[in-house]
Amino acid sequence: MPIYEYTCNECGKRSSTFYKVMPKELPANQECAHCGSTETEKVMSRAAYVRSTASRHEASGDPDAPGYDYWRDPSNIGRWAEKRMGEAGIEMPDRVKEMIGQAREGEVDKILDKRGLD
Ligand SMILES: [Zn+2]
User: Fold this and answer.
1) How many domains does the chain have?
2) pLDDT digit string, tens, across residues 60-81
């Protein structure tokens, strides 16, 4: 899941934006989720990670499919997401909660079957 993080110049907090697929062009000034200011700067260190994730998605030919590595250890999914979201100081989107819930209930096996991993 491509994630972009922005630091707000007004309140100093971080905001995260989730993309299902890699956008062709990112908005120059992402709105701060905390104070609504558009005086934000992209956190560059995260962009490198995001690019590699997007490349994997493109290679799989299915932009909606989560990367295999991401699902490999279902017990890590919730922990990772909660940690990242907690660090960013933002609430976890419903879509993420849903994915974690599915993974914890064993839905991850069905997802892997569907993808026909070799
Ligand atoms: Zn702000």
Assistant:
1) 1
2) 555 555 566 655 666 655 666 6
